[in-house]
Design brief:
Beta-Lactamase; 13 helices; 4 domains; Helix Hairpins; single chain; elongated; alpha+beta; 501 residues
């Protein structure tokens, strides 16, 4: 039906245009001479028919294009109306030019017709060609003006499409999640930089390759035995062979305008840190349970001994000292556990600040060193002792106690622990240096991480991996900064500063 209309309507428009112009030509001849031959109608038939068919075709094209552009401008290109994107050339001058041109063209054709047929040249003979030519020129001017609007809109649309494409491309290029897009046959068409980084490959390796075959070659199922294609919208875990990253994937169909599947979209998220944190938390719970169980067992055992049997005063004093030591050990572990929420958020730590001189704060340090001095030598170099600091003394003591006990824990008995302090402009520095086992460069990077323990084996020294992260949070809560350097086999140096009041 559509094809019949496309053929029939232009023919009818041709006949209608030819009939109208022939009728007007006939009236002109009757008005001027009263006599004419059939040859006088050749030009009106051809010109009128061509003009009629052309006007119909132009009108259809304008209507169809107007509807398409109106829908496109609002839905896809976010341009309120394509009519707003028109040329700055004056419509008035355009219509004036085409009207005059139409008038001249039809007048020349009419003049040619008179000369061919030998009709006399009379101004009244142009009474019909002038208005008809002018009207035709005016209509053609409207068409040209609409074409200029379309051309201006096309330029605006291309700019909009180019901008949107760059915007989407930037999103895909900068997003941290890996994105793989395939065609309907499952061949990879796009792999963003994050995807290539997660999998450890180049883009050319994936372009045109089968999605599932590539995934099976580049990854292995995480904690599973067999590889299987997951259903749509179902998360799955794989481990990249090149980077050893743990990736969480999810696949969804890519639909076209007709809601037909045109391909697949796979998103790969790097879950390595989350899985690492899960393992560290599991190790932490196990370690914390073990660390609490040891002193609590000692507390219970020595308490039962004191209650069940009689011992000499010296033995009783030794048992009580052990009970006191284990009780404070439990208190320290629980205190660290209470600071878990503050780790990583120093601004949430509430400080009870007061102003103390360096000499007064060092007395707290000496109290922390009492127990350590039984097994290690301590060398002090304290400078600028009259300087005053605004601190929470209890929390500062906690920092001192942990750093000096750490230094003793990881160094041999009898070795020296160096404690130095000094002022530098508006900051006061504290430095703790031991001669212990030290740490590698990689271990130093994670020394302040929550739950981190350089040695998490069963033979490792006691600890739950919270101390240094708590110390860092307390130092930063005071407005200071802490750093750690270490050399394996030669010792570790921890240095931090606090603002001077």
């Amino acid at each position: 039906m559509k094809y019949l209309r496309d053929i029939l309507f232009p023919i009818l428009a041709f006949l209608l245009g030819a009939a109208v112009l022939t009728l007007l030509s006939h009236l002109q001849h009757r008005f001027n001479t009263g006599a004419h031959s059939w040859r006088a109608f050749l030009v009106p038939v051809i010109v009128g028919g061509t003009a009629g068919a052309a006007i119909y075709v132009m009108r259809q094209r304008i209507n169809d294009l107007s509807i398409q552009l109106s829908n496109l401008s609002v839905s896809a290109l976010r341009i309120e109306s394509y009519l707003q994107a028109q040329s700055k050339v004056s419509t008035f001058f355009l219509l004036l030019t085409t009207t005059v041109a139409g008038c001249l063209i039809l007048s020349v054709l009419s003049l040619s017709q008179k000369l061919i047929n030998g009709f006399p040249i009379n101004p009244r003979g142009f009474a019909i060609p002038v208005p008809i030519g002018s009207l035709a020129g005016f209509l053609f001017g409207l068409y040209l003006n609409r074409l200029k609007q379309f051309q201006a809109f096309q330029t605006e649309a291309l700019k909009s499409l180019s901008g949107q494409r760059r915007y989407l491309s930037n999103i895909i290029e900068t997003i941290n999640d890996g994105i793989l897009v395939t065609d309907v046959s499952g061949k990879i068409e796009l792999a963003n930089p994050a995807c290539r980084l997660h999998l450890g490959i180049e883009q050319d390796t994936l372009q045109g390759a089968d999605l599932w075959e590539s995934l099976q070659q580049l990854t292995s199922p995480y904690q599973e035995e067999l590889f299987s294609i997951p259903p749509h919208n179902t998360p799955f875990l794989v481990q990249a062979g090149q980077t050893e990253r743990i990736l969480r994937g999810i696949v969804n169909p890519l639909l076209d305008d007709k809601q037909q599947q045109a391909g697949l979209v796979m998103v790969l998220q790097d879950m390595s840190q989350e899985k690492k944190n899960e393992r560290m938390k599991a190790e932490f719970i196990s370690t914390a349970t073990h660390e609490l169980n040891t002193p609590i067992s000692a507390l219970a055992g020595y308490s039962e001994l004191l209650l069940s049997e009689s011992f000499s005063p010296e033995q009783q004093k030794e048992f009580i000292e052990t009970i006191s030591q284990k009780a404070w050990q439990v208190n320290g572990i629980l205190d660290n556990l209470l600071h878990i929420d503050s780790v990583g958020s120093p601004q949430h730590i509430v400080l009870d600040r007061e102003t103390y001189s360096v000499a007064e704060t060092m007395k707290q340090l000496e109290k922390c060193a009492d127990q350590v001095q039984k097994t290690h030598q301590i060398e002090y170099v304290i400078q600028d002792q009259t300087i005053e600091l605004s601190v929470d003394l209890k929390k500062l003591k906690k920092i001192f106690c942990h750093l000096i006990s750490n230094a003793a824990k990881f160094s041999e008995e009898g070795s020296t622990i160096f404690i130095r302090t000094h002022a530098d402009e508006d900051r006061y520095f504290f430095e703790f240096k031991d001669q212990g086992i030290g740490m590698t460069e990689e271990e130093c990077k994670h020394a302040f991480d929550t739950f981190f323990r350089a040695d998490a084996s069963d033979t490792a020294l006691a600890g739950i991996g919270l101390g240094m992260s708590v110390v860092k949070a307390l130092v930063e809560a005071h407005g200071g900064e802490i750093k750690l350097t270490s050399i394996p086999g030669k010792g570790t140096t921890v240095k931090f500063f606090l603002p001077i009041s």
